[in-house]
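ARCHIVE CARD
CATEGORY: sequence design from structure
SOURCE FIELD: tokenized fold
FIELD CONTENT:
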């Protein structure tokens, strides 16, 4: 299953790279010809998408490596590391775009679009539709394989589309005689980018710091455990996220008269049903206590 997920992620990422190469070249050429700061910034953001997708591929491949002597619990957290790097890359891209727009606003040197301004406008419109399509394509794959880094890359793609919306407004304003809108658009784009980068960073950090699962999932696990034969109660149930997988530690109560072999059978039953009914659970550790909790 993990190898299948890896193939899906790499195929999606490869297609994204091909699209971004063509789109980046188109936007940069259009921006340079039109002398549009917003469109050039938009093109730079698309180039950043290329690097982010490469990071996503590396993260997925590393996270799917088998456990080894140095990493006996597996490598799932490498995907979180990749997502953090991606978040920082997105954040720095936003800062760069915002700084460029701010400089032009304070200098008052907005310049004027050349006669190729309409080309930049077309490039922005094309980018909006293409990048939104790439977002939904990558988002579907990320949800299917539950990949945080692929989802982060999908959001990066949508950000590029949002960037293009700002570029479109800015370029249109400049063509209508309001060149300052080109720089204001860059500032608005910056804010959107920073907001999403912080969201991606927060999600990745939570998955690296043993955050517990949602209460709904924990409650479902509790019901499944209590439904098992000879389980008379639960002393403690703990969960923690490990990349995109879950580890479960549970202390159950069983009849005090149960033999060691019988207690082992009860624990194994709980272990198996949790890993079977909750596919994201990588391992379930069960400890059996004598029935003092019921």
């Amino acid at each position: 299953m993990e190898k299948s997920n890896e193939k899906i992620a790499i195929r999606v990422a490869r297609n994204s790279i091909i699209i971004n190469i063509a789109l980046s070249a188109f936007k940069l050429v259009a921006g340079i010809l039109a002398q549009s700061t917003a469109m050039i910034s938009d093109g730079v953001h698309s180039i950043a998408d290329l690097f982010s997708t490469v990071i996503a591929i590396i993260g997925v491949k590393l996270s799917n490596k088998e456990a080894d002597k140095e990493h006996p619990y597996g490598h799932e957290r490498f995907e979180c590391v990749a997502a953090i790097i991606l978040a920082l890359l997105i954040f720095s891209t936003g800062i760069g775009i915002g700084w460029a727009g701010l400089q032009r606003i304070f200098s008052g040197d907005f310049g004027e679009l050349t006669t190729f301004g309409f080309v930049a406008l077309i490039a922005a419109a094309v980018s909006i539709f293409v990048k939104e399509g790439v977002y939904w394509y990558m988002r579907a794959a990320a949800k299917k394989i539950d990949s945080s880094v692929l989802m982060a890359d999908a959001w990066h793609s949508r950000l590029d589309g949002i960037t293009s919306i700002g570029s479109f407004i800015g370029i249109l304003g400049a063509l209508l005689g309001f060149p300052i809108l080109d720089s204001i658009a860059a500032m608005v784009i910056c804010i959107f980018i920073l907001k999403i980068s912080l969201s991606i960073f927060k999600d990745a950090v939570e998955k690296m710091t043993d955050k517990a699962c949602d209460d709904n999932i924990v409650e479902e696990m509790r019901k499944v455990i209590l439904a098992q034969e000879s389980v008379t109660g639960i002393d403690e149930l703990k969960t923690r996220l490990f990349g995109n997988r879950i580890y479960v530690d549970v202390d159950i109560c069983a009849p005090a008269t149960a033999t060691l072999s019988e207690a082992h059978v009860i624990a194994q039953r709980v272990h198996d049903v949790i890993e079977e009914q909750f596919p994201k659970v990588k391992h379930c550790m069960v400890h059996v206590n004598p029935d003092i909790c019921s």
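CARD ANNOTATION: The first strand starts at residue 233 and ends at 242. The chain has eight helices and three strands.
SHELF: design records, drawer C
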